[in-house]
Design goal:
Length: 479
């Protein structure tokens, strides 16, 4: 390498005598181009560079002593890391003297008050912490009257209909719906879940990305009954308790809330600091006060609604949890996750009893148990619905696979009719598809929306009524 070497008083060249005779080409000496190796150059640079560093260190200002921690004020008081430089006090006095305001010996130097700039008001989202939790939930009743002439609310199962809503779901034979009979519009953003009232189905609960939940009448005037407001971000999932008197909501604001269905009061709040993706009450009578929530941090957490405490944590998944399905008379449950696996658990025991992860598997994003209790249908990310046994072995039923719809990129509901005869699913192209459970053949496909249909639920009692909803915020009722 060629470099310019300076030959002054501290030059590196050894031929100083020859260079002295040459004419200076720098004010302090002569510089010439010579070829030296990289290692020599580096050694010289370190040698003279260190000298510069030592010189700088000599002129580095020194701080005053830290002082004694036991002395608060006065001479020798503790200054710690806030100690000034030794000549800093003098610098202040010099500055003041230049301005013609030299300080007297008994005066203190006082900085001029700094006027704070006028800051714009912070957005509401950044001051959420200031809201009181007790007053952040509100509810609004939209019906004509809250009580009928006998003092009953909308919780009362209507008995003036052509159908007995108090019978066991699945006793009627189901048929595929043919036409749209009603549209509910009130939500301003995409619908994220639809839930019929347990057993009777006379009420319909919807949750939306507009952070609200709404309760609708499925009979009579089919009107909006109540709005539940309390979340600050999109609601991810909702779930009725087995009795229907309360329901849970989960949201991207990391909160899970327990609501009173009848009067709209928020009974309690639960959080782990992570986003809940799916939430499910335990359907059994003895554990109906407990619920499971699948979180974004790969855990499934179990809460007791009576105490508000977390009672168990199931931590084996490797990705956010998508579905939770109770099976085997509610003694076990199956979970699926973005890690493309399926795990089965005994309730209250945080170790999986079955783990299924095959290389050809895709993420299973939605689930629906078959009324027989022997199978669970899962919406798979590769445009098909797959079926797994919910008995001891939890094996995939290879003969049952429902295809012909598009779901890739969306979490689209799958729902099985109460009599177990039909499988229904939404579609990313705006269709609702129906298959025959036994033959796996597509029975019917109808246009239900302009955009993706992400929510689809069978009515638990009616023979051919279903509710669907999509990204447009409208809920459609079919018969």
């Amino acid at each position: 390498m060629e470099v310019a070497v300076y030959n002054g008083e501290n030059g590196v060249s050894e031929s100083t005598q020859n260079n002295a005779l040459k004419r200076k080409n720098l004010p302090t000496g002569h510089a010439e181009e010579i070829a030296i190796s990289h290692s020599t150059f580096k050694a010289q640079r370190l040698k003279w560079g260190n000298a510069e560093g030592e010189a700088k260190a000599l002129i580095k200002p020194k701080r005053q002593k830290k002082g004694d921690p036991s002395i608060v004020d006065g001479a020798g008081a503790y200054r710690g890391p806030w100690a000034r430089y030794e000549d800093q006090d003098q610098a202040y006095e010099d500055e003041a003297a230049i301005a013609g305001e030299e300080l007297a010996s008994d005066e203190e130097y006082i900085e001029e008050a700094i006027v704070p700039p006028t800051m714009p008001a912070l957005p509401a989202a950044s001051t959420d912490y200031a809201d009181s939790l007790e007053t952040s939930e509100t509810t609004e009743f939209h019906g004509e009257e809250q009580f009928d002439y006998q003092g009953r609310t909308y919780m009362h199962v209507p008995q003036d209909l052509d159908i007995d809503l108090r019978q066991e779901p699945g006793t009627q034979k189901n048929y595929v719906p043919k036409k749209q009979i009603h549209v509910w519009k009130s939500h301003t953003k995409a619908i994220t879940s639809l839930r019929f009232f347990p057993s009777s189905g006379h009420l319909l609960l919807s949750s939306s990305a507009d952070s609200k939940l709404k309760l609708w009448d499925a009979y009579h005037s089919r009107s909006l009954l109540r709005t539940f407001s309390g979340h600050t971000k999109s609601v991810t999932d909702s779930c009725f308790s087995p009795s229907g008197t309360t329901f849970l909501s989960a949201s991207y604001d990391r909160q899970m809330k327990l609501w009173d269905t009848e009067y709209g009061k928020c009974i309690s709040r639960f959080t782990t600091g992570k986003i809940p993706h799916v939430i499910r009450f335990n359907p059994s009578e003895q554990n109906s006060h407990e619920f499971l929530a699948g979180m974004s941090d790969k855990k499934i957490v179990q809460f007791d609604t009576r105490s508000g405490e977390m009672t168990q944590e199931y931590d084996h998944h490797l990705g956010p949890v998508n579905t939770i399905t109770f099976v085997d008379q509610d003694r076990r449950f199956i979970t699926t996750s973005d890690d493309k696996s399926l795990r089965a658990w005994e309730y209250n025991i945080p170790v999986p009893i079955k783990f299924i992860a095959e290389p050809y598997m895709y993420s299973l994003v939605r689930a629906s148990p078959h009324p027989s209790g022997k199978y669970v249908a899962f919406q798979s990310g590769d445009n098909q619905i797959v079926v797994y046994a919910s008995t001891d072995r939890f094996r995939q039923n290879r003969k049952k696979s429902f295809r012909g719809h598009n779901n890739a990129g969306y979490a689209i509901d799958v729902s099985i009719s109460p009599d177990g005869q039909f499988v229904m699913s939404g579609d990313s192209g705006g269709y609702v598809c129906f298959w025959d459970w036994k033959t796996c053949k597509m029975w019917h496909k109808m246009v239900a929306a302009d955009g993706p249909v992400v929510c689809a639920q069978w009515h638990p009692q009616e023979s051919s009524k279903v509710a669907t909803a999509g990204l447009d915020g409208a809920i459609k009722y079919w018969d």
